[in-house]
Specification:
CATH class of the largest domain: Alpha Beta
Distance between the termini: 30 Å
CATH topology of the largest domain: FAD/NAD(P)-binding domain
Strand content: 25-35%
Largest sheet: 7 strands, mixed
Shape: elongated
CATH superfamily of the largest domain: FAD/NAD(P)-binding domain
CATH architecture of the largest domain: 3-Layer(bba) Sandwich
Structural class: alpha/beta
Number of strands: 17
Number of helices: 6
């Protein structure tokens, strides 16, 4: 028999936990389904400086559990499971998970995104053997070594700076002629004596023999190809929305993001999307939290007939 709630929220990041807190405060029986610990990917962020209320910054490992605690104190139930499928065509939405089925009158999809893979030779082969997506987790393994970071956005810049705390040198490979990160991050990266930025360059392959030993790179302007020795490679080339369990059920765009209106409503009545899983998201922690609050409010209005 399925577990029954007023609202089920899939995803335990900023959007999902905020939605859970608001939904529970509205008096709705609320379950937050998350396959990782509360906070999702933010728990791996070394220092968050752009979330209101923390002028000195806060680590993701601290903020994530605090957000989960606040949601649970409000009355939300946290379920550690992975959503695998959904049936959304009846008055009750059925969410199938690795922990069984959950039924609810409303569903909030806030499953976030996963770091995009490049799809180059060596990336899968050496994942966990020198290829990583988490500087805070794996940076200490490369003490005194030279590592590479692929990407030019906020995550690439932040993680490159985190890696300077452990490594001898960080080489940042970016395909463009300027970084795409926020200016404050760009300035820190450019000023860092331990970060070398190589512009207009693509990484074509990750090389190794059991462990990563380097990369094959190509300059986009000169077409010159070269090999560079590295002990590790950290990949930050964008995000892919975790919408697999509702694709073909809820409308998504070509990239897999879910279109919503200003109330976070999808094309299926009683189903909402919040955070960077939705189309045209700002993909920021604070905007994801706002999405979660909006989605929970909309779900309450839907259930109560307002």
């Amino acid at each position: 028999m399925a577990n029954e709630y007023d609202v089920v929220i899939v995803g335990g990041g900023a959007a999902g936990l905020t939605a859970g807190m608001y939904a529970a405060r509205y008096g709705m029986r609320t379950a937050i389904v998350e396959r990782m610990m509360g906070g999702n990917q933010i728990i791996n962020v070394d220092k968050i400086e752009n979330f209101p209320g923390f002028p000195q910054g806060v680590s993701g490992a601290e903020l994530g559990p605090l957000m989960q605690e606040q949601a649970m104190d409000a009355g939300a139930e946290f379920v550690m499971a992975e959503a695998t499928d959904a049936v959304l065509d009846g008055p009750y939405k059925v969410i199938r998970t690795s922990d069984g089925d959950y039924r609810a009158r409303a569903l909030i999809v806030a499953a976030g995104s996963s770091l995009r893979k490049m799809g180059i030779p060596g990336e899968e082969e050496f994942y966990g053997s020198g290829v990583s997506h988490c500087a805070t987790c794996d940076g200490p393994l490369f003490k005194g070594e030279v590592v590479g970071v692929i990407g030019g956005g906020d995550s690439a810049g932040d993680e490159a700076l985190t890696l300077t705390e452990y490594t001898d040198r960080v080489i940042l490979f970016h395909r463009g002629d300027r970084l795409d990160a926020q200016k404050i991050i760009q300035d820190r990266v450019i000023r860092s004596p331990n970060v070398e930025i190589i512009y207009n360059t693509t990484v074509e392959a990750i090389l190794g023999d059991g462990l990563v030993t380097g990369v094959q790179v190509r300059n986009k302007i000169t077409n010159f190809s070269d090999r560079m020795s590295l002990a590790g490679v950290f990949v930050y080339v964008g995000l892919e929305p975790n919408t697999e369990f509702v694709r073909g059920i809820v409308k998504t765009d070509n990239a897999g993001h879910i279109p919503v209106n200003t109330w976070m409503e999808t094309d299926v009545p009683g189903v909402y999307a919040a955070g960077d899983i939705r189309q045209n998201s700002a993909a920021q922690l604070v905007s994801s939290a706002g999405d979660g609050a909006t989605a929970a409010t909309a779900a309450f209005r839907f259930i109560s007939g307002q």
